[in-house]
Amino acid sequence: MLPTLIAGALLAASTVLPPQAASDVSTSAELKAALANAKPGDTIELADGTYTGNFKTTVSGNSGNPITLTGSAGAVLTASGGYGLHLNGASYWNVRGITVTGGQKGIMVDGAAHVTIDGVTVHGLDMEGVHFRNSSTYGVIKNSRIYDTGNDGRGMGEGVYVGSAGGTSDRSDHVQIVGNTIGPDVGGEAVDLKEGTAGGLVSGNSFDGKGLTGANFDDSWVDVKGNDYVIENNTGKNTTNNGYETHSQQPGWGCGTVFRDNRSDLTGATGSGRYAFNITNYDAAGCTVTVARSNTMTGGRALTNPGIPVS
């Protein structure tokens, strides 16, 4: 399990040095060129305005010289299909302040380490808001707002999605989801943590499940299928069924999570569970989950489903 001290150290590790060079960007063509030609230590500064297209980079910074893409919420990346911003194998990036909208997914991080997304707005998407995939490790999404996702109606519009379904080869480990506002009108869970991923942190977020579709069992704010996560100090409201869930989609996964200091409002939930924590895979001999007494709830049936210890 991941104690608070370790979790805090991981977040501190995402702190970066000041950038070394800057380029001012005000058109879509300039942005595409800047992403393609960035070098470690560069800063790409976006002027307010609309940037239409799909924007991608495959260039990495390094631990001492990350690359920064920054702008205000008035710098809007607008896609029609595909990904708004795709960091494909592009490690050591900071993405700050901008808005990403339209398209299939908002921000996709593929096979990249130490990507920090801070203070962005992501909305108006067919599927997920922010996705860490293909063993993207030590990623951070913080202080951001994600809403209005899953507009294709298939229940695949999670706010933040970590890993991949259907196996355990995607080791997008140590991802931190901190201080975000996720919802309303998010078509899937606010946070979906897939089997194969481990050691992450979900802390200090605000979840609004208004808009959950119920498709593909999307009936909670957070679904944990990975191992050894810490889920703490979050607040949630407007769920159709439960607040938080764990599942074992693959043998040995969905284990070791710690839930503490979360506040759940289940008022209005109409599902068959209506638990703040629905732990579907608890096994004292091999797959434990910790639900702390410091969690609180209003409405609903009970803090946990029957048979789950609260400590």
Description:
- By secondary structure, the protein is mainly beta.
- It has one domain (4-304): Pectate Lyase C-like (3 Solenoid).
- It has helices spanning 4-13, 28-37, and strands at residues 21-25, 42-46, 49-52, 55-57, 67-70, 75-79, 83-88, 93-96, 99-102, 105-110, 115-118, 121-123, 130-133, 140-142, 145-147, 160-162, 176-178, 181-182, 191-193, 201-203, 206-208, 222-224, 230-232, 235-237, 244-246, 258-260, 263-265, 275-279, 290-291, 296-298, 302-304.
- α2 links the parallel β1 (21-25) and β2 (42-46).
Keywords:
single chain; 311 residues; mainly beta; Pectate Lyase C-like; globular; Pectin_lyase_fold/virulence; Right handed beta helix domain-containing protein
Write the layout of secondary structure elements.
Elements: H1 4-13, E1 21-25, H2 28-37, E2 42-46, E3 49-52, E4 55-57, E5 67-70, E6 75-79, E7 83-88, E8 93-96, E9 99-102, E10 105-110, E11 115-118, E12 121-123, E13 130-133, E14 140-142, E15 145-147, E16 160-162, E17 176-178, E18 181-182, E19 191-193, E20 201-203, E21 206-208, E22 222-224, E23 230-232, E24 235-237, E25 244-246, E26 258-260, E27 263-265, E28 275-279, E29 290-291, E30 296-298, E31 302-304
Parallel strand pairs: 1-2, 2-5, 3-6, 4-7, 5-8, 6-9, 7-10, 8-11, 9-12, 10-13, 11-14, 12-15, 13-16, 14-17, 15-18, 16-19, 17-20, 18-21, 19-22, 20-23, 21-24, 22-25, 23-26, 24-27, 25-28, 26-29, 27-30, 28-31
